[in-house]
């Protein structure tokens, strides 16, 4: 394009914009070409040991692989959920082995460190690689170099390769269970509430728990409700039980909770219509609908194109209880009886209540704990008169007297079914 001769300011501006656009397009085209998979080796078959653990460290001990997932929502890529040191990990490669020809393709990985790192040196990250055009690889290896021997690298199965019909409507993701968790009664009550409200699967990233809790988990596994993902993150990193580095200067925050949540979203992308992201002491409680299904149908009708629904968290302090539902057979079970805690803390001035979420996993790219970082489509804050997060825990406003709390017995709507179901679990687990 020629930009000489007499020109108006407008013509000059158009010329500059056009040239800038051409340079930008050329840059991204070259960058994409540099990321295209290249054949480096040929083999009679794909070798390398299959990685079976939930968390697999690479040789650099700065990169930890959780699981790869096929993602064709924008282009044909393998998206690997992992944990990386945000400063020290600069380059990674995906090694694909394509059958039946045995060709080894190596792709330059894009390392997308999640923005919600909260000051910790290690963070959740997406390691994203373009896949070979004429191959649908079933496994991938991750390496620091584009050269080497694939036989020496661990191989990871690429999940979500085949589309599946949605077998369940709601999956709850809980991360992470740690600290010899022993709040048995409240856990059972939460599980039974999730089932009453419509959950068919609860995925739990388990670091450790008490022996009694193991019995309860075994019951829910055999029932078909619980899926336990081992989460031995403290075998590899110094973990904090707080959310910010300034509170506890360790390698990664809150037992790698954000990484686990992202893995849970992708793990259930083809298996569940909705994914519920909350903790075991939290219940997204509908106030206008009997269950999650009718609530979500209404919310989707009112908010077309929305895939992220955020619910306001409200604290029901375990320090204040009512004499109602003091069930003697529950008194020997360790943990909190949520039916006795129906007083919630009032809102604090100039403090925004955090939110928990129900999401369409197909529309999530990256999630944090209280919001989705990247998504397709929009998010909506669900009004408190539609639903709230019932969160029974230690108080945040510990100095408040009972008369300053708000009596809210919404949970009692479900008391009959909840008591019956909890008693059944206690009987069958012989607690």
Automatic annotation (TrEMBL):
It is found in: Membrane. Pfam families: Glyco_transf_92. It is a single-pass membrane protein. Keywords: Glycosyltransferase, Membrane, Transferase, Transmembrane, Transmembrane helix. Its main location: membrane. Coiled coil: none annotated. InterPro entries: Glyco_transf_92 (IPR008166). It comes from the Eukaryota. The chain crosses the membrane at residues 9-28. One of its GO terms (cellular component) is membrane. The keyword Nuclease does not apply. Its EC number is 2.4.1.-. GO terms for molecular function: glycosyltransferase activity. Belongs to the glycosyltransferase 92 family. This is Glycosyltransferase family 92 protein. It comes from Calyptomena viridis (Lesser green broadbill). The lineage of its organism: Eukaryota, Metazoa, Chordata, Craniata, Vertebrata.
């Amino acid at each position: 394009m020629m930009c000489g001769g007499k020109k108006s300011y407008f013509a000059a501006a158009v010329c500059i914009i056009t040239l800038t656009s051409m340079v930008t397009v050329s840059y991204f085209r070259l960058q994409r070409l540099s990321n295209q998979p290249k054949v480096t080796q040929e083999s009679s078959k794909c070798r390398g040991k299959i990685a079976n653990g939930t968390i697999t460290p690479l040789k650099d001990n700065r990169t930890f692989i959780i699981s790869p997932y096929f993602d064709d929502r924008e282009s044909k890529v393998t998206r690997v959920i992992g944990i990386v040191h945000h400063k020290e990990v600069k380059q990674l490669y995906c090694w694909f082995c394509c059958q039946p020809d045995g060709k080894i393709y190596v792709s330059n990985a894009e390392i997308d460190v999640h923005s919600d790192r909260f000051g910790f040196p290690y963070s959740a990250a997406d390691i994203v690689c373009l896949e070979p055009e004429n191959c649908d690889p079933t496994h991938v290896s991750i390496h620091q170099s584009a050269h080497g021997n694939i036989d020496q690298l661990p191989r990871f199965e690429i999940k979500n390769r085949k589309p599946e019909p949605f077998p369940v409507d709601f999956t709850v993701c809980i991360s992470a269970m740690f600290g010899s968790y022993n709040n048995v009664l409240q856990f059972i009550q939460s599980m039974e509430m999730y089932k009453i409200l419509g959950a068919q699967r609860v995925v739990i990233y388990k670091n450790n728990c008490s022996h009694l809790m193991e019995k309860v988990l075994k019951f829910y596994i055999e029932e078909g409700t619980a899926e336990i993902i081992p989460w031995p993150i403290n075998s590899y990193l110094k973990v904090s039980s707080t959310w910010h580095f300034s509170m506890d200067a360790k390698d990664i925050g809150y037992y790698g909770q954000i990484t686990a949540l992202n893995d849970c979203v992708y793990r259930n992308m083809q298996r569940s219509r909705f994914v519920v992201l909350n903790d075991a002491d939290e219940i997204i409680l509908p106030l206008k609908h009997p269950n999650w299904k009718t609530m979500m149908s209404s919310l989707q009708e009112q908010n077309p194109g929305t895939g992220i629904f955020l619910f306001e968290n409200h604290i029901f302090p375990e320090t204040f209880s009512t004499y109602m539902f003091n069930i003697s057979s529950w008194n020997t079970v360790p943990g909190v009886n949520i039916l006795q805690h129906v007083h919630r803390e009032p809102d604090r001035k100039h403090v925004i209540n955090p939110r928990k979420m129900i999401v369409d996993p197909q529309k999530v790219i990256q999630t944090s704990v209280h919001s989705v970082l990247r998504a397709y489509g929009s998010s909506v804050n669900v009004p408190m008169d539609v639903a709230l997060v019932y969160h029974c825990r230690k108080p945040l406003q510990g100095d408040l007297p009972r008369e300053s709390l708000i009596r809210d017995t919404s949970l009692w709507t479900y008391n009959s079914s909840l008591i019956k179901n909890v008693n059944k679990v206690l009987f069958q687990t012989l607690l």
